[in-house]
Write a structure and sequence with these properties.
Low-confidence stretches: 1-36
Oligomer: single chain
Order of helices and strands: EEEEHHH
Shape: elongated
Mean pLDDT: 74
Length: 146
């Protein structure tokens, strides 16, 4: 949490709020006409990790790459099985395992997207949150069709 000039607290979860006071000086100083000792602040810009090109999966990037390499190995194993004329049901069992691994990866990525990218859009408000929710809803729909 960060404390603003007026003494209120705001969440600081990876975002920076750039604020400007409408009146110069500190709260409670004389010379503020009709302000009764309180400074008014307006938030002019919210800069999030997403604005800097940091996506939700960034912190787990190494684990994700390791997981994808493992899935890639499963797919190469499928190619080898076909090349070696392995029994159909054995290949289908491996296809099922590979599909499950990809679906599990997709769900993890979706969770990170919701916790990071959609949450950042919620901080900003406005049309951006609606766009991110719609984007996530469509992604979930695509996952459900597979």
């Amino acid at each position: 949490m960060t404390t603003t000039e007026a003494g209120s607290t705001a969440p600081s979860g990876g975002s920076e709020e750039v604020q400007q006071s409408q009146q110069p000086g500190r709260p409670g100083q004389s010379g503020q006409s009709g302000q009764s000792g309180q400074s008014q602040e307006i938030v002019t810009d919210i800069v999030t990790d997403h604005d800097r090109g940091i996506h939700g999966y960034h912190q787990q990037k190494a684990e994700h790459l390791k997981r994808l390499r493992r899935i890639e190995g499963q797919i190469r194993g499928l190619q080898r099985m076909v090349d070696e004329d392995v029994y159909c049901i054995d290949i289908l069992t491996q296809v099922s395992a590979s599909t499950k691994a990809l679906q599990s990866f997709a769900l993890q990525l979706l969770e990170e997207h919701l916790r990071h990218c959609v949450a950042d859009a919620a901080l900003k408000g406005g049309d951006e949150i609606d766009a991110k929710v719609e984007e996530a809803t469509k992604a979930i729909g695509r996952l459900l069709r597979t």
